[in-house]
Amino acid sequence: MSPKIDKKIASIIIVLLVIGCVGGYFLWTQLNPAAPSVEQTLIIGTTTSVDILDPATGGSWPTYMVSNLCFDTLLGLKTPECVEVVPELATEWTVSNDSKTFSFTIRQGVKFHDGTPLTAESVKKSLEYVITQAGPNSFFLDDVDSMEVTGTYQLRISLKNADIGFLSKLAMNGLVFPILNADAANAAGDQWGKSVLIGSGPFKFNESREGERIVVVRNDEYWGQKAKLDKIIISLFANSATARMALESGEIDMFYRNPNPDDAIALKANPIIETQSLPGSSRHLYFHLDVAPMNNTLLRQAIAYAINVTRVWQIGYKGEGTISYSMVPDYMVPYYKPTFAKYAYDPAKATELLNEAGYPTGFSTKLYYTTNWSPMDVDAALVIKDDLAKVGINVEIVMEEYAVFAADLYNGVMPMDIDNWAPDYPSVDNVIMQAIHPDYGWDATAVNWYNARFVELGYLGKNTTDENARKLVYDEAQDIMAEEVPVYPLVFRPGYVFYRSWVKGFVFYPMAHSDKISFVNTYIGPKE
């Protein structure tokens, strides 16, 4: 072969190598859009305070968020609708004909963050840990009758009562159902949820500095799809204005929970800030029937007539969302029934009912709220105070930090409070049963309301598979709630997440209360 041909061949080879390298790099950047030169740390700002990060006993938003990042559940929800359950730690499952026995095959090869293999026994211990801790959400497991490990990766859960929504509950990744290392939790003692937190999720707990930040890092040994982010920092801010300025300056990448109304309006109008709206949550009044005189049904009906809910919506909540006429969200078709619409603003009717209730000159009471949920609640409280004053009810407004508020909710202190509720899983029984049902509801122990027919309907709805028959059951349950008024719905409010344009690929699940965000495909792109 001549030297000239050698040179030509060599030149062709070099060109092909260059094309191959460039083409390979192009393909790599398409499959891996986050350039390696960009630091893959996401900083989320929030003004929500932290109680404890233990998913068995905690109740704050950062607990939900960290649980979603660091733990897996037996089942997941298929996005974006979040109605259909899909495999997660359980690869297969069967349900008995009576909807009382659930058998699961646990995914093999999964390890907790400390290297401990995750088995059916691990899942059983995790759920037992939640039950024994008796945290604020442990009622979700009150119906569990027994759990039996039938093989290394086989688990059977039996319920006391039929529950067609049980699989949806198991997909809740905020509290209770995340599978934790119970042996590690018991060994850590009071450091669990503070300096020790071990799950099997795509991120691992790194540190928590009280009042400052929470840090999680990528789990490189994760059994599923590995996260693109190296680290997520939840940065805790004392107030909304400071968090807003941090987002605008680029100090943080995302602001979620809880901008005040003025900051939210400013961020939505700022062209450099991206906004995503989220499914809403309910704002409503809870009447605590163990605190006089709220045990009087006529009096509660009077309060319902005395409140101009349109003003509460327009002034208190800035016209965001919609007025709610049921505890069941209006998007839960066909179960939503606007039964509270009958309480159209009518001060004369309220005065008439107060007379019948034995309070012709009115009375004095207190209305509690916490800033942990929404800064707008104080404005709503002021509107309610003004409306009730017009019919002779003198209201003192009491604001409490969340930890104090959560304790006072159950100790017979509050006559009424502005409360918050959003579905944890996609089933109407989550509202009827978990919100206020005397045998199940977390908040039911605060409201202390009991109606035998309502209790019966709650169980009937859980056991009814025919949708038309089930609708009739929940229609009647909503009628009873509206007649006896243990709760008075105010509004359904949307949520918002504000972020910079360089944050790519995150997905919010449409179950507002669980605050589940998928960060598996999230990455930080080039910053402006």
Tell me what you see in this structure:
α8 (297-306) packs antiparallel against α10, α9 (309-316) packs antiparallel against α11 (377-389) and α15 (452-463) packs antiparallel against α16 (467-484). It is built from 16 helices and 21 strands. The protein has two domains: 45-272 and 501-524, 3-Layer(aba) Sandwich (D-Maltodextrin-Binding Protein, domain 2); 280-494, Dipeptide-binding Protein, Domain 3 (Dipeptide-binding Protein, domain 3, Roll), CATH 3.10.105. Strands 1, 8, 9, 10, 11, 12, 13, 14, 15, 16 and 17 form an eleven-stranded mixed β-sheet that branches. Strands 4-5-7-6 form a four-stranded antiparallel β-sheet, with helices on one face. It has a two-stranded antiparallel ribbon with strand order 2-3. By secondary structure, it is of the alpha+beta class. Residues 1-36 have low confidence and may be disordered. The longest helix has 29 residues, at 3-31.
List keywords for this structure.
528 residues; alpha+beta; D-Maltodextrin-Binding Protein, domain 2; Dipeptide-binding Protein, domain 3; 2 domains; eleven-stranded mixed sheet; four-stranded antiparallel sheet; disordered N terminus
